[in-house]
Amino acid sequence: MAKQTKYGRQNLVKSLQNVSNVAYMGQLDDDRWLLEFVEGGFKNDEAWFIKAPDGEEFVALPQQALNNLLNHLQNHHEEKLLILLRHEIKELMPIDLEDTMVVAIHELDKYKDSSGSLQSLDVKEFARKIKITYPNLFLQLDKLFSF
Questions:
Q1: Is the pTM of the predicted complex or chain greater than 0.70?
Q2: How many of the other CB atoms lie within 10 Å of CB of 7?
Q3: Quick check: helix, strand or coil at residue 29?
Q4: If exposure means fewest CB atoms within 10 Å of the residue's CB, which of 7, 61, 69, 143 is most exposed?
Q5: Which distant-in-sequence residues (6+ apart) come within 8 Å of 57 by Cβ?
Q6: How far is CA 124 from its chain centroid?
Q7: Using one digit for the tens of pLDDT, what is the confidence trace for 17-70?
Q8: Cα–Cα distance between 42 and 46 in angstroms, integer?
Q9: Dihedrals φ, ψ of 82, to 5°?
Q10: Are strands 22-27 and 48-51 parallel, antiparallel or unpaired?
Q11: Are 36 and 23 in contact (CB under 8 A)?
C-alpha cells in the first residue's frame, strides 16, 4: 500500500507541474455543470485544472492530497513559531535554554485549539510571560548586582 501512496503522490506532483489534466466547465442549468476535458482526463491521483466560462481558473485536488498539504502547512507554522520562540527566550537569558524550551512547549499546548492546531501568537510577549511565570529559569541580573 505504501508503494501506491508514493506512486499517487508522484503522479499528483507531476500533474501539478505539467498541467496535464485541463477541463472546461460549462453550465447546463442552475444546478448542473459539465466538465469537458480538452487535455488529459479524470484521474483519482492527479490534479485537474478547470476553466470556467467567466475566465476563472480552478485546481481540483484529491481530498487526501489537500489534507496532506494542510498538515504540512500547519507543521511548518508550528516549527516556525518554535524557532522564533527559541530566539526570543534566548534573548531573555535563560539559565538552561533546553529546560526553558521544554516548559515553553508545555505552555504552548494550552494555546492549541480543539483540532490541535496552534494559532497565531505574539512570540515576544509569550516569551516574556514564560519569564514572569517561571523566573527561576532565567538569570536575574538585577538581583545579582543589587547591594
A1: no
A2: 11
A3: coil
A4: 143
A5: 49, 50, 51
A6: 21
A7: 778 888 999 999 999 999 899 988 887 778 889 999 999 999 998 888 888 888
A8: 8
A9: -65, -40
A10: parallel
A11: yes
